[in-house]
What we know:
This protein is α/β, with parallel strands linked by helices. It has 9 helices and 20 strands.
Amino acid sequence: MPLPNVVIVGAGVTGSMLAMLVKEMGLPVRVLEKSRSAGGRMATRELRGGAGGDKVAGRADLGAQYITTRSPPEHAVLGPVYRDLETAGVLRPFSGEVAGPNPYGGAGAEVRHFSAPAGLQSVAQRFLDRSGARVQYERALSALELLPGGGLRLDVASGGGAPAALDAEGGVDAPTVVVLTQPVPQVLGRSRFPVSGNFLERLDGDTSAALAKVEYSSRFAAAYFFNAEDFAWKETWTARYFERGDVRYVAHDTGKRGAGLDESMVSVLVHSGVPLGIEFKDDVAPFDRAAARLLEDLQQKLPGVPWDKAASVKVHKWLYSQVYKGIGAKRPAPDWTWDSGDGGFPGCAELFRTERALGLLAGDAMAPASNFEGCVFSAHRAAEAIKAYADALAATAAPPGGGEGGDLRVAAR
């Protein structure tokens, strides 16, 4: 029987790490990403300028701000990951002052922080580059249908809504593994961008109930870009958390990343609190009301920054900012460590299984922590499930050829 094709939906940390792990198994893998670039909630905003508009004038991490680990450098699983990212220049130690009450458990002698000079989006890109996987951007999975013979049909739309074909790889007789890494409400059909189809009909009742209890926090991010001559910064800290008000986090993003002279502009990144995200959760871009509230609070909290001289402001709404309650309504732990156990989190959930197809749901909602290492944990658990499925296929006799159940059918929509 041919090796199974693996299709990963989402090029965030979970999906990109999983692509690398699957490639190491020798399985064919491709990644579908609805955005124009990798990263997911580790997205980095690039402001371009200069001749032709191609040169990056400034960057800002819109989502995750820095990576925190409590694992020792020699950790068997995580150690090689961090060493590779540092050696490649993707990550660097971050020793800047983080002021205010950090809600994510940042204290402790064993804690190490990392930032990314080119933005944290480069972490997922590094994993994808190492995987050698075929990555198709601006491709969104719109429907997933189980066929009567046990095969699959995938309906794929381009990021702009125009039809886009997804060709089958590995031969039409190859079984298919599909791993969804997008937020759980999208998988369950409870969001503006649902995945339709009958693929949840085989989901057992307990897993369905546990997934229905997943909750996310929502918040806004605002990136302010300044020409260097118009910028002033009098604070001693690089990043700060605030307990009250609409603004709950501010970072001198250029300083945090240790960006070199290749960036001519200075960026400051702001995150709102969850209450503002809830209040304006139905607003659409350009999010003027949220932007006005954030600016008003910034002028009170940091009057020394010339906010009115910002050359560009990008406001982004994170509808699914961070996992508030994971699978089964379990709360993720901000100070979780890999060696402390899984805390009852499965790492991934099985959506369906046939002789011709396996469907998994992965991501930090399945993990003990809603952070980088939680995503890595989920990717490893999903990789284990894929390997077990591939091994089981290899141990069985090849079924009769032909027929609907043996096909990976992909339709454009």
